[in-house]
């Protein structure tokens, strides 16, 4: 299939195309910087839990920068859905639309898409957009991560595509409804402004590009970039051995019952195209670990992006060769009114791990072993004793990534799917009534291997307010990230509490009677209580006995592994 | 990349050091103090700004700067809840409520300018109070280029050029080269801070400003 390799056949030369592709990327990066600098929530200005994008007039993604892989699927579908539902004529100059409906192509309820059309010669040329995880949108739990919800209606305020800015005017009734349904309206007010502001910044840059190249030329260039990405991706797939590859993994529970939910993939690589068949996955869960179709799509896309050339421009073209088959009503394609908030953060990395595991059969030297695959979502809210305001916060932790054919897994990094950052202790302690007593790498937490998994972290919060309402949505607290090709599993994570006066940490199910140890909401903790968040370690790659001696010694020196692990696990003799 | 011309400026290789030598001396002071815009203690701000202005000027004097310094004050601000600040200039004059109100207004405008919007009525956080004093830039005169003199004291020695072997090569001292001087490679131009090679087939010309202009026979790079 060598004739499928990208060849410059288009009328626009490849240098100019590359310049335009980079211009699109830079527009998105600049949006991201504006978003980071102006937003109010740590999940945005520290966590960077958002994605900035450009679309053509048909709603195809034409430009994106390095943001959240978990949003790749909704980049494909949410904009198109909005266009189908509203029609192009709905977009007037300066109008901004917003949309977070998981049943209309969005990831999960906190993820809000804001969109603005950019005009050229009086007509819409394309769109600039931002998908962002708004930290509090109402619903049954502060922070809107209702880990024991059973319907989407408990997960917060659901918005179909609606106009939020009418030119420069606020659509006041819409704002009033939204802000009346969020627990921290002032923060939402600031964050929505940051999201919409990022569109202004992008619009100005796209207008400069339009003035420089003209609308027709830029449209032709966009189309050719989409085709180029498709050719490039097809060529990469064609280079993989044809075959049918199977893999599976499970979510440990759904917060409602203690049953696991299996994600089963039959991956078909056929010439220059791919089919990801998820039909054998379990029925959808009653709890919120369900993935929407776009989350499953994002996992498949991001799995492939991990193993192909990173020179492929990321746009709608590179996903054309990848088809999905899912069963509505299953855990990988939730049906209304099932809940899905955890599907985006927890199930997404699990699904992506399954894709990479299936790809191990085709491109064994390009995949990583399973990762910790939990964001350790920890949400809390209450009245701040010092500031007097009601606050909520969405806190995440980094886990260990899987080992690869050439290096150890990354340690304490937010999962593959999020590309997010943790929040510095200084920011946490300044804004919220917690003291971080401890924040450290967990020794012996990674899966053994020629290249070991990444290490997990442990953090202990001390509560400094009379009471705080906390919610958790973790996974991999009873399951483990499996190693591959002889590599061992990473350790499980978990969330534990030591009530003031207690001698040791215990599970929340023991202390509070929650059904799940890893998924619960509306638990009241009190001043002096300690909460420990442990993330999960990554799986190892390859036989531990093949691990070079100097790497084992390096791990010993840094106290990443114990002397017993060196000896028993790696056969190391001092 | 098809380059056919190379410009070697004066003092090649030490331009940053030169910049450091001739840059204007300046002193910065920062007072980290947090206020909300609805509860600023103007008297305290005035006291700190005045104190910092006095001390930056004193420190500049202590460094031997006698020229009259330019002093600028700014306040780093953000909307209450944001995580990154904007530096807002504070006009000259005694700090009082109206000067501070003007700075807050200026913040809204700057936010509008950078990000396309402002949030009128929103509480602003004041995070840092900054003072900078600058004065006494060193005068820098580029070296005089002899405009009508003759190049003097050249010598030659065998030099190895890749693909061409040992060639008899003229060695020039850069400080002796007059403006408008022209010659053909192979040449080596020596100076205290660098050495310039003009390969065979390339030509050299000295610009009136002192830069060496090398024109290559074949595009390079």
Short synopsis of the structure:
By secondary structure, chain A is of the alpha+beta class. Chain A has twelve helices and 20 strands.
| Shape field of chain A | globular
What is the CA-based Rg of chain A, rounded? 23 Å
Strand neighbour order, sheet with most strands of chain B: 1-12-11-8
Strand order of the largest sheet of chain A: 2-1-5-4-3-6-7
Q: Helicity range of the residues of chain A?
A: 25-40%
Count of helical regions of chain A: 12
Counting H and I runs of at least 4 residues, what is the number of helices of chain B?
3
The unreliable regions of chain B are: none
State the separation between the terminal residues of chain B, measured CA to CA: 5 Å
Task: Please provide a written account of the structure.
- The complex is a heterodimer of chains A (about 575) and B (about 220).
- Chain A is α+β, with helices and mostly antiparallel strands and about 575 residues long.
- Chain A is built from twelve helices and 20 strands.
- Chain A has a seven-stranded antiparallel beta sheet, sandwiched between helices. Chain A has a five-stranded antiparallel beta sheet with strand order 14-15-20-17-18. Chain A has a four-stranded mixed beta sheet with strand order 8-9-10-11.
- In chain A, strand 1 and strand 2 form a beta hairpin.
- The radius of gyration of chain A is 23 Å and the shape is globular.
- Chain B is built from three helices and twelve strands; from the N terminus they run E-H-E-H-E-E-H-E-E-E-E-E-E-E-E.
- A four-stranded antiparallel beta sheet of chain B has the order 1-12-11-8, with no helix packed on it.
- The model of chain B has no long low-confidence stretch (mean pLDDT about 90).
